[in-house]
Amino acid sequence: MRTRGSILIANIITGLALGYTVANIGFGDYAELNRMFTFQDLRMFLSFAGAVAIIVVAFAVLRVRRVPGRIHAGVVPGAVLFGTGWAISGGCPAIPIVQVASGYLPALVTLAGIAVGIRLCRWANTRYLRIDSGSCAG
Amino acid sequence: MNDYWPWWAGAAGLALVTINYAIATDRSFGVSGAWDRVLHWRTERRVERANAQITDDAVLLEALAAATAGPLGAPPLAPASHPAAPGDGGTPGADRLPPAEASSSMARLLPAPLVSQVGLLLSILVGGWVAAVTSGRFQLRLDMGEGFRQIVTDKPTEMIAALFVGGVLVGFGTRLAGGCSSGHGLNGCGRLQPVSIVATAVFFGTAVLVSFLLWKVI
To answer: What residues in B contact A78, CB-CB < 8 Å?
Structure first.
């Protein structure tokens, strides 16, 4: 069942559903995002938190296995940088794709920035940071 | 404009996507991990080929071991280590499995194929486009909307700079933290993994702080 082909199909179905859902929740809309992060409107926050709650219960019932992971030196600084970038640009790595798909052409610049940041992270980790695997995939 | 889904529909949608993926593949997905692998496709293809070679060898060894006397059979080889982040498309931790289990699930322990990560990113584009068109929100435009204009900047050059710098921070930060809102937020928190709970709390908290600064101060 879990062959290359089945994983490809699962990824395509997941991508389609994720793009459709994220766009319809409104994550691509900067005004909605800022209203979520400033607690002016809890709708999107509840969508995310509600999803996590459902997933926690479902994974516990289905006994989905956990993936080993430790809190390494890159987690907190990385999350701070990500949170800052998300609040400024309105994009986590999936959202600018949805923004471009919705017609927001400047989101292509966000995607270019994400590409530079990802490549920069692996380069910096290989040369300088040398944080163990789990960070920058380096 | 607020014709977006109510919160419960959004929650159900995101949960269904994540649960369905976990059931179908016994993996977790992560968009930043997919980006990372696609952007480093040359290296990733080399790793993939090496893993395929090792897997082939391991299958051969397993068959030979089964055919020749069980107790003395050679232990299976572990797949070439891959640095995928927890909850970000990979399934690290192969080394923690007992040899017998590792041998039977060799393919499952390898990271999701590179082509499937390309498929994930492209299909997000298609899914987002279908949503925008069917809801009547699709509109080609050269700005990021009224909200961005009011809260961040209304000058085109500053907008480009803000989007680029923000994008770099998102790209660098998600890889440094080992995941993003899908890898850590949905898949990791859903599995109650401490690293994902910490990462999600920190990136969400920081985004709240910066958003308040943008909204009220700057």
So the answer is: 172-178, 199
